[in-house]
């Protein structure tokens, strides 16, 4: 077992600082800077057009109506209507482009995270819950949708509107403008406090959602349901889920209510500002101050009301950005995961693989704190030869088989394929050369044909039938009402263990790899089913280099070479007959198997 399997790997120093994080976020939009420039132009045009409306209103009140100039009145009214139309059109175009850009950025993020995880070693997935991974891709990236699709554009739009409106207000009356903006610094300070508070809560909320996703993934799978029902734990699981959901309720309420009263105070003050402006203008006139025309006063209040919406929106956007930084940080954690199994810069490509496997003084341990899993392994498997590896649980058998296809990399020595270190080969060569059939057969929730074609997407129906016949599963598939179009169910639960194994063997036959790894492929099967599967395995193994991890020793008596592992070291090796004659650990294992079979019969 790997250390700390209960917790996902978190890279050190995941809080690189807000400025660096913001730069990384902006970098995501770089491929779309042309479209964003168009959005900027539309935003600027919309802001200028909307600001013109109060000035048209001023002229209507101060000039057109008092002087009875109906022609000018009609033009000014038409201008106000045209301003509203243009503002709406610019807004629709701006929304279309910004939403498209935002969705493309989310697509890029999802693809980047998924691609990164596809390149992680097997060790990462053995210590990370599946639901945690799913939550990062679905919940965290989904939670950023508002930010990447509209918040950035909203920020630019509102900022432009605020600047243009303030300039227009100054042009009308700088003294009223100064009065209007007195409390703005206080509002900014309040919104920053609210943003930091919501960011902290959002981090907690996303962690809780990840825990819930993991619980759902594990307990509502077919295997989870079977385990819960047969163990009588359905009510307990429901209660546990309810407790986790209750915690999420509290976090959601806190997230939505964080700073609401403070933001409400800002809204009340902003809404009361027109009354304050009228009161200020009236006092100024009463005590001998400069007179302000009705048109100017109405236009100024109109601008101030226009300033209210983008200012509050701008403050709320700042809060939203602070919240989204927590989501971006969780995504960047996965994007920053170190990839410990990589393709070399100048990889070796083998057009034809013969299949000779060598383990040369191989050592392996999961980390510096754990002891060696494998130590000093020297084994050669000639091309077309067969090697069987046996030993007690925890001896390192499966780990040895995982080193050949580079699910793990050796920490000492090397593993070679046709004389080339597997670490120097390109991934395509390894994928074509090595086929794996394990005890835990994985089938997708798709048709039989789709599951088989996962190994060879362009396989014809005839090739599917040939592979299935070799795996001795064709007759069973043909007897089903939908034949090869039969949906196998979640993880293949509509098929028995032996049938799933034979489907996996048929899938591997389609790939036709020169090297075959059988990792305890029949250990979970009954004797009768094992016999049928073993016949399929024999057909698959013919002419291939075969590495078999054996649980039942009856399946490997014909192997060219048998190696006994114990505590990570090869303690015995030879043929079946040679090891029996030696009378050591292998002979003891054979006697144990014989006793078990006798007891079972």
Automatic annotation (TrEMBL):
A GO cellular-component term linked to this record: plasma membrane
Places the protein is found: Cell inner membrane
UniProt record, GO biological process: oligopeptide export from mitochondrion
Primary localisation category: membrane
PANTHER family per the UniProt record, alphabetical: ATP-BINDING CASSETTE SUB-FAMILY B MEMBER 10, MITOCHONDRIAL, ATP-DEPENDENT PERMEASE MDL1, MITOCHONDRIAL
TM regions (residue ranges): 36-57, 72-97, 146-168, 174-191, 263-281
Annotated ABC transporter domain residues: 357-592
Organism expressing this protein natively: Streptomyces phyllanthi
Protein name per UniProt: ABC transporter ATP-binding protein
MF GO annotations: ABC-type oligopeptide transporter activity; ATP binding; ATP hydrolysis activity
Residue ranges of domain ABC transmembrane type-1 in the record: 37-323
Family: Belongs to the ABC transporter superfamily. Siderophore-Fe(3+) uptake transporter (SIUT) (TC 3.A.1.21) family.
Topology in the lipid bilayer: Multi-pass membrane protein
InterPro entries reported for this sequence: AAA+_ATPase, ABC1_TM_dom, ABC1_TM_sf, ABC_transporter-like_ATP-bd, ABC_transporter-like_CS, P-loop_NTPase, Type_1_exporter
């Amino acid at each position: 077992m790997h250390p700390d399997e209960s917790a996902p790997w978190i890279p050190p120093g995941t809080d690189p600082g807000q400025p660096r994080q913001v730069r990384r976020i902006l970098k995501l939009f770089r491929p779309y800077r042309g479209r964003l420039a168009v959005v900027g132009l539309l935003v600027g045009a919309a802001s200028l057009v909307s600001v013109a409306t109060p000035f048209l209103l001023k002229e209507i009140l101060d000039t057109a109506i008092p002087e009875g100039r109906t022609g000018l009145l009609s033009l000014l009214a038409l201008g106000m209507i045209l301003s509203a139309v243009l503002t709406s059109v610019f807004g629709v175009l701006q929304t279309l482009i910004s939403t498209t850009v935002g969705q493309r950025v989310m697509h890029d993020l999802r693809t980047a995270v998924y691609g990164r995880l596809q390149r992680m070693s097997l060790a990462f997935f053995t210590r990370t819950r599946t639901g945690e991974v799913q939550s990062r891709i679905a919940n965290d990236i989904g939670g950023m949708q508002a930010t990447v699709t509209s918040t950035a554009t909203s920020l630019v739009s509102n900022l432009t509107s605020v600047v243009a409106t303030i300039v227009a207000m100054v042009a009308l009356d700088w003294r009223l403008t100064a009065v209007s903006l007195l409390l703005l610094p206080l509002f900014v300070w309040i919104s920053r406090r609210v943003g930091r508070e919501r960011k902290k809560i959002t981090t907690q909320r996303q962690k809780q959602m990840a825990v819930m996703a993991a619980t759902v993934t594990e307990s509502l799978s077919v295997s989870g349901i079977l385990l819960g029902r047969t163990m009588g734990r359905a009510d307990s699981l429901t209660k546990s889920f309810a407790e986790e959901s209750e915690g999420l309720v509290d976090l959601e309420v806190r997230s939505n209510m964080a700073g609401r009263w403070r933001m409400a105070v800002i809204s009340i003050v902003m809404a009361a500002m027109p009354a304050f402006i009228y009161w200020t203008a009236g006092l100024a006139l009463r005590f001998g101050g400069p007179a302000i025309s009705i048109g100017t006063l109405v236009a100024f209040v109109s601008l101030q009301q226009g300033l209210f919406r983008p200012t509050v929106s701008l403050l709320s956007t700042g809060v939203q950005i602070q919240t989204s930084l927590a989501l971006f940080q969780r995504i960047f954690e996965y994007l920053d995961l170190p990839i410990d199994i990589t393709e070399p810069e100048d990889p070796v490509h083998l057009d034809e693989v013969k299949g000779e496997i060598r383990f040369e003084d191989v050592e392996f341990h999961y980390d510096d704190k754990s002891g060696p899993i494998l130590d000093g392994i020297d084994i050669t498997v000639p091309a077309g030869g067969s090697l069987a590896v046996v030993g007690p649980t925890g001896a390192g058998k499966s780990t040895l088989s995982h080193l050949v296809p580079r699910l793990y990399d050796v920490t000492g020595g090397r593993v070679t394929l046709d004389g080339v270190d597997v670490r120097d080969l390109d991934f395509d060569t390894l994928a074509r050369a090595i086929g794996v059939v394990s005890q835990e057969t994985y089938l997708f929730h798709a048709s039989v044909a789709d599951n088989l074609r996962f190994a060879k997407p362009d396989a014809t129906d005839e090739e599917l039938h040939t592979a299935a016949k070799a795996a001795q599963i064709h007759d069973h598939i043909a007897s089903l009402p939908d034949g090869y179009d039969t949906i196998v169910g979640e993880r293949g639960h509509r098929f028995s263990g032996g049938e799933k194994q034979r489907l996996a063997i048929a899938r591997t036959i389609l790939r036709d790899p020169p090297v075959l790894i059988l990792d305890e492929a029949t250990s979970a099967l009954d004797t009768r089913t094992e016999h049928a599967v073993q016949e399929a395995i024999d057909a698959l193994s013919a002419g291939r280099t075969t590495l078999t991890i054996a649980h039942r020793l009856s399946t490997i008596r014909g192997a060219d070479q048998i190696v006994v592992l114990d505590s990570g070291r090869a303690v015995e090796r030879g043929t079946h007959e040679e090891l029996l004659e030696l009378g050591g650990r292998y002979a003891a294992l054979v006697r144990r198997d014989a006793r078990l079979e006798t007891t079972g019969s």
